[in-house]
Amino acid sequence: xxxxxxxxxxxxxxxxxxxxxxxxxxxxxxxxxxxxxxxxxxxxxxxxxxxxxxxxxxxxxxxxxxxxxxxxxxxxxxxxxxxxxxxxxxxxxxxxxxxxxxxxxxxxxxxxxxxxxxxxxxxxxxxxxxxxxxxxxxxxxxxxxxxxxxxxxxxxxxxxxxxxxxxxxxxxxxxxxxxxxxxxxxxxxxxxxxxxxxxxxxxxxxxxxxxxxxxxxxxxxxxxxxxxxxxxxxxxxxxxxxxxxxxxxxxxxxxxxxxxxxxxxxxxxxxxxxxxxxxxxxxxxxxxxxxxxxxxxxxxxxxxxxxxxxxxxxxxxxxxxxxxxxxxxxxxxxxxxxxxxxxxxxxxxxxxxxxxxxxxxxxxxxxxxxxxxxxxxxxxxxxxxxxxxxxxxxxxxxxxxxxxxxxxxxxxxxxxxxxxxxxxxxxxxxxxxxxxxxxxxxxxxxxxxxxxxxxxxxxxxxxxxxxxxxxxxxxxxxxxxx
Length: 482
What we know:
Layout: H1 11-36, H2 44-55, H3 57-67, H4 72-83, H5 92-114, H6 121-138, H7 142-147, H8 149-171, H9 181-198, H10 203-222, H11 231-248, H12 252-257, H13 266-287, H14 289-304, H15 317-334, H16 337-343, H17 353-377, H18 385-437, E1 442-445, H19 465-474, E2 478-481
Parallel strand pairs: 1-2
């Protein structure tokens, strides 16, 4: 009797199955990139670009910080993107998706090293691709979180920055620089900068980041075997808290809150937060049930197939992962706190990417660890290895057909809607430029087809906020639809 993984075929057979799954996940993500090329400026994109055209780069930063929002990192980066022109909106989804994949890979690779195992790159690539796939395809509003440039910067970029921050914290790279004060200084400075930048996009992301870092410091000081203060984690918390202060005490928040801020009181905040988080968890599990169980089981089998010689014993495993499970629950609930306080409601669907990425990371990493645990505990008779391998292969086929390929099919089915919107947008842009060239200052334009991202468009009312933003962007007296 010997310990064998569920994928108990040859090493090459296991590698082939994992490679096929990885390629199928990347293919589905490729279709997201394809649809992203139909993205165009819409809604708030014109607002930030309009102020950029009116005021210039640095004055625009000051305007938004003092007159509307404390999201300093968002304003800075969206202004950088808009300096490249409206054409960059076509490339923004590709830019965001590539960075999401890259930072997810770095985070997963760092997590694999935490298990004290070797970290084969293919395993890290599969797990990170699955993490990105599940996050994007199970988030309630993919269009506004990825294809809309303002949404991508507000909601996806902070996830990217946070992933990079924690991949650094988990790698603990300061060890090689202990004897080089210059390198050590830059290492801590980079952590401080990443934490500060990560805190300047969204109140939800910042609240989650501060909570995770606080729990991580508590674990390292009071629960881990070494029980010591972690300077890199404390440095990151300082940067995040500084960013939190800049975010919440920005002068522009008073202006923004005057138009719809609600503070329902402590008891109501607790009730709304608890209800919203539980409701979303149940809905997420129900809506994505088929994807979740197949992806989870496949990930468990991949963990079970991890090479036996790379496993090692760890102390206090139950305490460690028990604290991790409790911390995940706390962070998930906390992610609903800011909107409970500010809006007395759940977050908008596009902002639910934050709790969604936490759920998918927990699912992927938890199932992989469960597979590692099974590898060490369960003994499989050599005579049934082939049967188990065939069963695992059948599950992989089911997962590919019902997961990545099916989602890619659904995306392809939506392509005409995105294409029609992009074509109509370009035709109207040509018309606007022609009117501007003719010296017109009161523009009358055709309406666009249904916005595929469910965002507001130009109206017949020149005083509507979308009309005002496009008026500023084009530098005219007014603009409205026919």
